[in-house]
Each structure stands twice: as structure tokens, then as C-alpha cells.
Specification:
Layout: H1 11-24, H2 37-44, H3 48-60, E1 64-67, E2 71-74, E3 79-82, H4 89-95, E4 100-111, H5 114-120, E5 127-137, E6 140-150, H6 167-175, E7 179-190, H7 193-198, E8 206-216, E9 221-230, E10 234-237, E11 241-242, E12 254-255
Helix pairs in contact: 1-3, 2-3
């Protein structure tokens, strides 16, 4: 499809939309190599700088990725995570037909910081389990996660191998906890150097920063977790339902599932 030089839309945006359509229509499949900057410039009779700008924006949107010395490739479709039910990373990946695994960065006991203590409803400096992992699906790093648990509620939990075991499965099976609710916040930030390296990202890279407190059926928090998810591989979906606005004028409150 030729680009229209008479349109007000900049040429790099036109090229971006052409490539986007080809990716979404399946002309290019995940991990297919795109034509080089030079090839695209010749094909569409535009400058390499124009091509570079189009490819940069597609990269920032997560549709393509680059490998130094190898070229530009089509990304896997983003994981569409619905915020409707409380599941572990391992459970969610298996549902999608992916093989979950973890790379343990840290597994130790330590004193709860004031923020961790507040989240877990325990006194500061109470001994907590600190478990930091890179979460992978089919060998690809998707998230960096650090979980904090009150040690007195799950003694000896670090005897488990969390490179292969699910934390939620262990809490249910070995400690008898029913995980019934979680409170979660999500915000978009730029990845720092540590996240760039561990998640194998190219700067500047947007990531989704999450904080979650998970509660048992007995009403106490069992886990506080901080996570960083790759923005190029994840999108989150929530079902929003209007509550009754009786006696509140025109104000409408919104809620979504845990």
C-alpha cells in the first residue's frame, strides 16, 4: 500500500499504521522479522529517518522489538489480564497454555519495614519472609516480583523451591489458607536500570508497577507484593459496574472485582 504524500498525516504515522495493519491481519506473525530500515525506505520511497520514527513508535507500543545485529521482529500479542479473580501467576500462565517458571533472586528472612508492616498489619521489625523472583512464561521474563509474608503465619516456608513451586499453591496446600480477596493498585512508570536488565528491556521502556495485599478467609493479610510487569507484554482489563446512585445526586461510584 503506497503512502499518500497529499494527506496531512505525517508519513511516519502512515507507515506505522500500514505496518500495524499488516501485523494485526497476520501478514507478519509473532517473531517474524520485518524488512530493514533501508528496505522499508526503498519500498515506500521515504527517508530512513521517517522509517526509524515509525518503528520507534511501534516498539514503544509493544508491537515490535529489536535484537541488536539481528533486526526488528513482531512481538507476541499482549497478555490480556482480567482483574476479576484472584489467581497466581503460575495459574494464569497455565490457563493460557504457557509454561510458568521463576528465577529466584532472593529468599530470606528479614525485619518488616514500616510500609510492609502496615500492609501486613503487623508491628514494624516483625520477621517476614522476603521472596524476590523473576516470573517467566515459556522462558520469557514477564514480571519482577517481591513478596513479603509474616513468617509466624507460614513457618519454614523457605524450605520450598519457589523456582518451580507456586507460592499460592504452597499457602493453600501446606498451610491451609484460603486466599479470598486482594487489594491492588496499578500505575505506569518507566523502568529503572534494574528492571531494564532483569526484564531484558530496551530503554525507554514503560512498565506496570503493582502493589497487592492478599487476605485469607480468616480476615488477615498473608502477603504484600510489589511487582513490575512488562508494559510491552501486558494489558489489564477490569469490569466496571455503576452502583446505585440513590441519594447521591449525579455522583456515580465505580468498582471492580478483587
Amino acid at each position: 500500500m503506497p503512502l499518500d504524500r497529499d494527506r496531512a498525516t505525517p508519513l511516519y504515522i502512515q507507515l506505522k499504521e500500514v505496518l500495524r495493519a499488516q501485523i494485526e491481519n497476520g501478514y507478519y506473525a509473532p517473531h517474524d522479522r520485518l524488512p530493514s530500515e533501508r528496505e522499508l525506505a526503498e519500498q515506500y520511497n521515504i527517508s530512513r529517518m521517517t522509517v526509524r520514527q515509525a518503528l520507534l513508535e511501534l516498539t514503544q507500543e509493544g508491537l515490535i522489538y529489536t535484537r541488536v545485529g539481528k533486526g526488528t521482529f513482531v512481538s507476541e500479542p499482549k497478555i490480556d489480564q482480567q482483574l476479576l479473580e484472584l489467581t497466581s501467576f503460575s495459574e494464569d500462565m497455565r490457563r493460557r497454555g504457557l509454561q510458568p517458571s521463576s528465577r529466584v533472586l532472593e529468599a530470606r528472612l528479614g525485619p518488616a519495614s514500616p510500609k510492609v508492616a502496615q500492609a501486613l498489619q503487623i508491628p514494624p521489625d516483625t520477621e517476614v519472609v522476603i521472596l524476590s523472583r523473576i516470573r517467566l512464561a515459556n522462558g520469557e521474563p514477564l514480571a519482577l516480583e517481591t513478596a513479603y509474608l509474616p513468617h509466624h503465619r507460614c513457618p519454614n516456608i523457605l524450605q520450598h523451591d519457589f523456582a518451580v513451586e507456586s507460592l499460592y499453591d504452597v499457602l493453600r496446600t501446606n498451610y491451609g489458607y484460603q486466599l479470598v480477596q486482594a487489594r491492588q493498585t496499578i500505575e505506569a512508570i518507566l523502568a529503572g536500570q534494574r528492571e531494564l536488565e532483569l526484564l531484558e528491556l530496551t530503554p525507554p521502556a514503560p512498565i506496570l508497577a503493582m502493589e497487592r495485599v492478599t487476605f485469607t478467609n480468616q480476615g488477615f493479610p498473608i502477603e504484600y507484593v510489589r511487582s513490575f510487569y512488562r508494559g510491552d507484554r501486558y494489558k489489564f482489563r477490569a469490569l466496571l459496574c455503576p452502583t446505585q446512585a440513590a441519594n447521591t445526586g449525579d455522583r456515580v461510584r465505580w468498582k471492580h472485582g478483587p
